[in-house]
């Protein structure tokens, strides 16, 4: 796509603001210093303006992606897109949405939502989307493609799967998770190398690595600390190997980039 213009600000973890065609799209807002056993170890807490959005996209029901206190910071009238079944699976979501007058849409892969000049399409993610630590498989894990002047793919949490490129479709920019919050990533996740292979399959012209270098389990500061810092740099190195035509942008927390 030519003449595509999009601005991306990474606030840490999987939280980012994508601005396209004057529409502010916020992903998986997490605005706290500590969540259960996780503590924010890098970057200041996002400022109030980080919660300003026209639409908020929630990829799945894990508490570090669907975080009710962070959603409570949204302005009344904000559109909120969540996986199908989220309101029934997450206690308090329906009440919070009513109290804060959020306009909630539940989505499954293939569904589209229009917000101003932008269209948002939900796509499949390969990830356990349940509300942990326990819960039935009521809701899918999702990624989203934001289409305005550019096509921006927010992968949420996902593993690499064979039909990814076909299901996501052509994209200009890819926001890819590369590290999570711990040193060991199992099925349903991308590490730096798998994210680089995903970038190659997608054929995006640029990428922004996310979901790394923000939160770390309490007590693990001295255990493999390089695993906390390394994924972004390692993704750039692996992308140069697997997708040499793509530009990798590694913004600091709160730094906007024009990929």
UniProtKB/TrEMBL annotation:
Pfam families according to UniProt: Lactamase_B_2 (PF12706)
Annotated SUPFAM superfamilies: Metallo-hydrolase/oxidoreductase
Every Metallo-beta-lactamase domain range: 24-212
InterPro entries: Metallo-B-lactamas, RibonucZ/Hydroxyglut_hydro
GO CC term, one of those recorded: cytoplasm
PANTHER family registered for this protein in UniProt: METALLO-BETA-LACTAMASE DOMAIN-CONTAINING PROTEIN, N-ACYL-PHOSPHATIDYLETHANOLAMINE-HYDROLYZING PHOSPHOLIPASE D
Protein name: Membrane protein
Phylogenetic placement of the source organism: Bacteria, Bacillati, Actinomycetota, Actinomycetes, Kitasatosporales
């Amino acid at each position: 796509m030519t003449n595509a213009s999009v601005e991306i600000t990474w606030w840490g973890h999987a939280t980012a603001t994508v601005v396209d065609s004057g529409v502010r799209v916020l992903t998986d807002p997490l605005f706290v210093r500590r969540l259960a056993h996780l503590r924010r170890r890098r970057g200041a807490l996002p400022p109030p303006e980080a919660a300003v959005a026209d639409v908020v996209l929630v990829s799945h029901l894990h508490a570090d992606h669907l975080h009710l206190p962070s959603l409570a910071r949204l302005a009344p009238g904000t559109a909120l897109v969540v996986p199908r079944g989220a309101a029934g699976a997450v206690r308090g979501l329906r009440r919070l949405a009513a109290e804060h007058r959020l306009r909630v849409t539940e989505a499954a892969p293939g569904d589209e939502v229009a917000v101003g000049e932008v269209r948002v399409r939900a796509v499949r993610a390969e990830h356990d989307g349940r509300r942990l630590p326990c819960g039935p498989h009521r809701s899918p894990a999702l990624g989203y493609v934001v289409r305005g002047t550019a096509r921006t793919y927010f992968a949420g949490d996902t593993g690499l799967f064979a039909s990814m490129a076909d299901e996501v479709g052509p994209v200009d920019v890819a926001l890819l998770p590369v590290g999570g919050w711990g040193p060991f990533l199992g099925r349903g996740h991308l590490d730096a190398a798998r994210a680089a292979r995903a970038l190659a399959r997608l054929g995006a012209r640029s990428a922004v690595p996310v979901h790394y270098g923000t939160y770390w389990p309490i007590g693990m500061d001295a255990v493999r600390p390089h695993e906390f810092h390394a994924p972004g740099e390692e993704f750039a190195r692996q992308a140069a190997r697997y997708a040499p035509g793509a530009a990798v942008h590694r913004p600091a927390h709160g730094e906007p980039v024009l990929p």
